[in-house]
Design a protein that fits this description.
- By secondary structure, the chain is an alpha+beta fold.
- The protein has 2 domains: 205 residues, Ribosomal Protein S5, domain 2 (2-Layer Sandwich); 172 residues, GHMP kinase, C-terminal domain (Alpha-Beta Plaits), CATH 3.30.70.
- Helices cover 41% and strands 22% of the residues.
- The protein is built from 12 helices and 12 strands.
- The strands form 2 sheets. Strands 1, 2, 3, 4, 5, 6, 7 and 12 form an 8-stranded mixed β-sheet that branches.
- Helix 3 crosses helix 5.
- It is globular.
- It starts with a helix and ends with a strand.
């Protein structure tokens, strides 16, 4: 647990004392259900073993100071100043370094949530082994770890769903990234050996056993090392297209449309808007189908749903890149049961569901394709469904 020790070491360097505790939260992989969350649809992510750690302790003043192993300097503000740093959901760039807007935004969101509580200053040191920019939700892991730390230090007594909502508000309003709540819910509600089936409208959840281990399968993550960012890279434009499509259909969100509505959508919309809408509608159905197949048949039956999801993101939503397509195609050619890009797109990672005995062969095949194409070498590793936020020390 190198990142845990890094967080404690950074805290000691920052304060010359030991933290009151170290809390952590996981990144996530989305098994299926991409860009459906902010359309109030369905998703099926799970928390991964890679975690972000927050070493924290109370101060005797009203200042909050955050430091990170991936930033040169700490950032310090008063708790009162948080209200002026993040006053509205303006979508404008934060008035602090972007990395610090995640933990400071969480503090701001929690203070707004519990304005009746007296809250004291805190020092926080952050370290992580969640790959940044890989579509594995390193941001939600930061938000979850910091939220868990502050909730305990400030004795807020809030549940995991509320922690997730605070993290989402931080990302949407403090950072300015127009994401849905999937990442935060996946991180805070993570369970070993299960994915979280989430209805993003009602926030109702159900744990769905993945059955990977019993079936002799591994989920391979192929980090292309092509970095992406939710606040840039076309994410906002895709969300606006979905909202435009819902308006043309006369519905609250694309959650309220089904595949039966696609002919009417095609008649109402320009080609680009229609294809964005078609992805979301069909992806919602693929999530429901994946849950049904996992429960009835087990994980060997979901391969073609993963493949269809990738094709939809590549062709209709247009968020894939050459490296992601190469990773998916190479994994399938080498024998993967199914593969797709995962995360917001424009870079990041792909996943491949692989027989345990074929992991090395599939990884080797992907690496050879990347070398032949002149791409940066990918980072390839396996993940298993893991638990949510916790206090480690």
């Amino acid at each position: 647990m190198t990142a845990l020790h890094d967080a404690r070491g950074l805290f000691a360097d920052l304060t010359d004392r030991e933290p009151d505790g170290v809390w952590s939260a996981p990144g996530r992989v989305n098994l299926i259900g991409e860009h459906t969350d902010y359309n109030e649809g369905f998703v099926l992510p799970f928390a991964i073993p890679h975690r972000t750690f927050a070493a924290a302790a109370a101060r005797d003043d009203d200042r909050i100071r955050v430091a990170s192993t991936f930033a040169e300097q700490p950032v310090e503000v008063s708790l009162r100043d948080l209200e002026t740093l993040f006053p509205t959901a303006s979508g404008s760039a934060p008035a602090v370094p972007e990395w610090s807007a995640y933990p400071l935004g969480v503090a701001w969101a929690l203070r707004a949530l519990r304005a009746d509580r007296t809250m004291f200053g805190v020092d926080i040191a952050i370290a992580s082994d969640v790959p940044v920019g890989a579509g594995l939700s390193s941001s939600a892991a930061i938000e979850g770890a910091v939220a868990a730390a502050l909730a305990e230090l400030w004795a807020l007594g809030i549940d995991p769903v509320t922690l997730a909502q605070a993290g989402r508000r931080a990302e949407n309003e403090a950072v300015g990234a127009p994401t849905g709540i999937m990442d935060q819910m996946a991180s805070t509600l993570g369970r070993a050996d299960a994915a979280t089936f989430l209805d993003c409208r009602t926030l109702e959840t159900r744990s769905i056993p993945t059955g990977f281990e019993a079936a002799g399968l591994e989920l391979l993550v192929i980090d292309t090392r092509v970095k992406h960012a939710h606040s840039t890279g076309g994410y906002r434009e895709r969300r606006e297209a979905c909202e435009r499509g819902a308006g043309l259909l006369g519905i609250r969100s694309l959650r309220d449309a089904t595949t039966a509505d696609l002919p009417r959508a095609a008649a109402l919309m320009d080609d680009t808007t229609f294809r964005r809408v078609r992805h979301v509608i069909t992806e919602n159905q693929r999530v429901l189908d994946t849950v049904a197949v996992l429960e009835a048949e087990g994980p060997h039956g979901i391969g073609q749903l993963l493949v269809a999801s990738h094709a939809s993101m590549r062709d209709d939503f247009e968020i894939s890149v050459a490296e992601l397509d190469a990773a998916v195609d190479a994994a399938l050619a080498a024998g993967a049961i199914g593969a797709r890009m995962t995360g917001g797109g424009f870079g990041g990672a792909a996943i491949a569901l692989v027989e345990r005995t074929q992991v090395a062969a599939v990884a080797d095949a992907v690496e050879r394709v990347f070398v032949d194409a002149g791409f940066t070498a990918p980072h390839i590793f396996t993940v298993t469904p893991s638990e949510g936020p916790r206090r480690d020390v």
